[in-house]
Specification:
It contains seven helices and ten strands. By secondary structure, the protein is α/β, with parallel strands linked by helices. About 35% of the residues are buried.
Length: about 260
């Protein structure tokens, strides 16, 4: 079952004294189990820093993070994590890259062959299972990376701008894939982006983060029906959320 994530007076500072750089916080936030929460803010506001702290890959300077009621004190192995640059290894096929996630956890990929095939089929990569990364487009590589992050069925999925380097049409297709994968299993998703429309389209809640030092200005519930296709962008409810968030960033001089 997906876990609730809690941030309690969480902050990250680099250095000390007059030279200290305040990267994020302090912040308090509860991310409910099974929700899709976007961290939305300008470059340098601490979005990725927060994601790394949730993953246990970066220690906070103050405060704590609880996942399922347990404090995060080191790297977590129960999560799926994906960055803007995918982690596919060039000498393995697509299915071999997906299986690598299982091998690193001491599991036999042969026991999960059906799961691997199902994931590849869900993102329309079943015909490319035996191909290597260099034989795929950028969008196909990201789809393979999603499968890699999901194959061990994590309850928490952390995504750090995974669509940032893709063209607009490819991004839209992968957004639909991501939405489908989330709706099927409902892991707790924390998604980093600087695209307002992307955050509103994908999320159950959008956390608006201020310019550095990043603080959570507000958490906006996105009460739009699922699934959300391109048509949702023309609804007054969608544009209302977008305009509200634009207004916040305008007040901060970001846009």
């Amino acid at each position: 079952m997906a876990a609730t994530i809690e941030l309690r007076s969480l902050a990250k500072t680099y250095g000390s004294g007059p030279q200290a750089v305040y990267a994020f916080g302090p912040a308090d936030l509860t991310i409910p189990s099974g929700s899709f929460v976007s961290l939305l803010g300008p470059s340098g506001c601490g979005k990725s820093t927060l994601l790394l702290m949730i993953a246990g890959l970066l220690a906070p300077s103050r405060g704590e993070i609880l996942v399922g009621g347990k404090q995060v004190s080191g790297p977590r192995t129960d999560i799926g994590i994906m960055f803007q640059d995918n982690t596919l290894v060039p000498w393995r096929t697509v299915e071999g890259n997906v299986a690598l996630q299982l091998e690193m956890r001491g599991q036999k990929p042969s026991a999960h062959a059906g799961r691997i095939s199902e994931l590849l089929r869900s993102v329309r990569l079943e015909d490319f299972a035996k191909r290597h990364p260099h034989e795929l487009s950028g969008g196909m590589q990201q789809r393979a990376a999603f499968c890699q992050a999901l194959v061990h069925e994590p309850d928490t999925l952390l995504l750090d701008e995974p669509l940032g380097k893709l063209d607009a049409m490819t991004r839209e297709g992968i957004r639909a894939d991501l939405q489908t994968l989330w709706m099927k299993r409902k892991p707790t998703v924390v998604f980093v982006t600087h695209s307002i429309e992307e955050a509103v389209q994908l999320s159950s809640t959008v956390c608006v983060i201020t310019p550095r030092p990043g603080r959570i200005e507000c958490a906006i519930d996105i009460d739009l029906p699922w699934p959300r296709d391109l048509d949702v962008k023309s609804t007054p409810e969608f544009t209302g959320h977008v305009h509200r968030i634009q207004g916040i960033f305008r007040d901060y001089g970001v846009i």
